[in-house]
Design brief:
- By secondary structure, the protein is an alpha+beta fold.
- It has 17 helices and 20 strands.
- It has 4 domains: about 160 residues, Methyltransferase, Cobalt-precorrin-4 Transmethylase, Domain 2; about 70 residues, no CATH class; about 170 residues, Heat Shock Protein 90; about 80 residues, Orthogonal Bundle (Arc Repressor Mutant, subunit A).
- Helix 9 packs antiparallel against helix 10.
- The longest helix is centred in the N-terminal third of the chain and has 15 residues.
């Protein structure tokens, strides 16, 4: 049975944190069983972990050249693994795949956080051993828990994270095979090829998005959040609201709501913010050839802040994620607030280490799609993006009751939105009378005006606003570039247009 990721991703360490991966040269029953037990206990709700057999490790990283597992040993390893995993109590079996990579074979063991915590394993494999231990994972090590950690583990016994719970109101038919296959293809999982011929129930079991009881097959919440066409049926207000307040009076409000599978609504909201809210300003300085370029707010900071809000929101709380865009700032609010292990003082001083995650499975899926990063890296990424843009420091807030979490991103102090908008509008109105643009025909002027107003739009969006075909837009953009009216800054997918005349 395949695991819902690929060995190349695991070996890179870019998606799954190193602390959640352990490498073994061979199948060592005693040591490996302890690791599997620790991942199953998942004391910090990281989402379990992976054991990769056939890889030497050095300082917790794979050592190259890769060793692999001899083909003649694989069957014996798998049989012994099955027998030894039956020693874990309560009953727990990880998902195992034999993977081919760089001409060699490896055994990948996926041990997601279990639903019947705490789990114990024998202290050793001797026949007269009667001692059992509740192993846990701390940092990158499998350890015996302290008394305090044992109490923590018992407290977690009846506290399965909301995203990993079975949804008794849903049916298997509420999961969409097309969405599942699209996800598997995007992350490069070997399950994608198998999904064409696999039984649907077996596919969902392999991804751990349904209950495993044969007599009661129901989707888990995380499966419905990502692979249901209408997750809001099961999680009211599981949506992102972008609300714009163009001025301080509050008389004018623009609101747009994004619904659907979590990863889709996140991507669509980010695209809207990038194209409709984020703007670049260019200031020419006398005596300096290079103009100053900065954004009202850097996209990288918004991307990380909003992704974190989707990751850490409580989906049992009937409140949307709200992105408030005010004249001088953007505020991203989600509910409930931060875990109590994060103090108010820590937020003010940017010293944040979340001891336990609210949604262990949502984070797993978002990381696979590169929509969020590793543990506790979000604050640093947001601050770095703002600093590189010359923007003020962010503000992170929660209340004593932990009912909300707010991230405030302040606009660049030199970015005067109103003046820029007025200047753009005046210049666009003058296009018809401008001697430089008189040589442009009707379609060229229409495309040029749209680009001038919003340089972040795609060709499809430009075509819609200019009321011309996409092929006309392509031809016109080439002419405008050749004649020095515009130039492209950045890549075709993520760049923006710079108006030169």
């Amino acid at each position: 049975m395949a695991v819902p990721t690929n060995i190349k991703t695991l070996l890179s360490g870019n998606v799954v944190e190193w602390a959640r991966i352990e490498f073994k040269e061979t199948w060592d029953a005693e040591a490996s069983l302890k690791t599997i037990c620790a991942f199953a206990n998942d004391i910090d709700n990281w989402g379990g972990g992976y054991l990769v057999i056939g890889v030497r490790e050095k300082n917790g990283r794979p050592e190259y050249p890769l060793q692999g597992v001899p083909a003649e040993k694989i069957d014996g390893y798998l049989k012994d693994m099955l027998n030894k995993c039956k020693l874990i109590q309560p009953e727990y079996l990880p998902i195992v795949e034999v993977a081919d990579y760089e001409g060699k074979k490896f055994i990948v063991v996926w041990a997601p956080g279990g639903n019947s915590r705490p789990y114990s394993a024998p202290k050793n494999m001797s026949k007269d051993n009667r001692e059992r231990i509740y192993y846990i994972r701390k940092m990158a090590s499998t350890i015996v828990p302290s008394e305090a950690e044992k109490r923590d583990l018992y407290n977690l016994a009846n506290n399965i994270p909301f995203d990993d719970r079975v949804n008794h109101e849903a049916e298997l038919a509420d999961l969409n095979i097309t969405l599942i296959q699209s996800y598997l293809k995007e992350i490069g999982s070997s399950l994608y090829q198998e999904s064409e011929s696999m039984d649907f129930v077996d596919l969902c079991k392999s991804m751990n998005i349904i209950s495993t009881l044969p007599e009661y097959t129901k989707p888990k919440n995380v499966g419905l959040m990502f692979f249901s066409l209408e997750p809001e049926r099961f999680f009211p207000y599981a949506q992102i609201d972008v609300v714009e307040f163009p001025d301080d009076t509050g008389d004018r409000i623009r609101e747009k709501t994004f619904k659907g599978p979590l990863h889709q609504q996140l991507r669509e909201a980010l695209l809207y913010i990038r194209n409709s809210i984020i703007q670049e300003q260019v200031i020419k300085v006398d005596g300096i050839a290079e103009a100053r370029r900065f954004f009202n707010i850097p996209f990288a900071a918004v991307e990380e802040a909003l992704s974190n809000a989707v990751y850490h929101k409580g989906y049992d709380v009937r409140e949307p994620i709200e992105v408030r865009v005010e004249p001088d700032r953007m505020i991203i609010v989600s509910h409930p607030g931060a875990d109590r292990s994060i103090s108010q003082e820590g937020l003010r001083e940017y010293r944040v280490f979340s001891r336990r995650y609210r949604n262990r499975r949502i984070g797993e899926f978002l990381k696979e799609m590169h929509l969020t990063e590793g543990r506790n890296t979000g604050f640093r990424k947001i601050r770095n993006a703002l600093r590189n843009n010359g923007s003020p420091e962010p503000l992170f807030e929660t209340d004593e009751e932990r009912t909300y979490f707010a991230t405030t991103l302040f606009f660049h102090p030199d970015f005067v939105k109103k003046e820029l908008d007025d200047s753009q509008n005046d210049n666009v109105n003058d296009i018809e009378n401008d001697s430089v643009t008189k040589a442009l025909n009707k379609n060229e002027r229409a495309v040029f005006e749209v680009i001038w107003r919003n340089p972040g739009l795609s060709a499809d969006q430009i075509a819609g606003l200019a009321e011309v075909s996409k092929s006309t837009v392509s031809r016109t953009i080439k002419k405008l570039k050749d004649r020095g009216f515009i130039r492209r800054s950045g890549s075709d997918r993520k760049g923006t247009w710079i108006v030169l005349k």
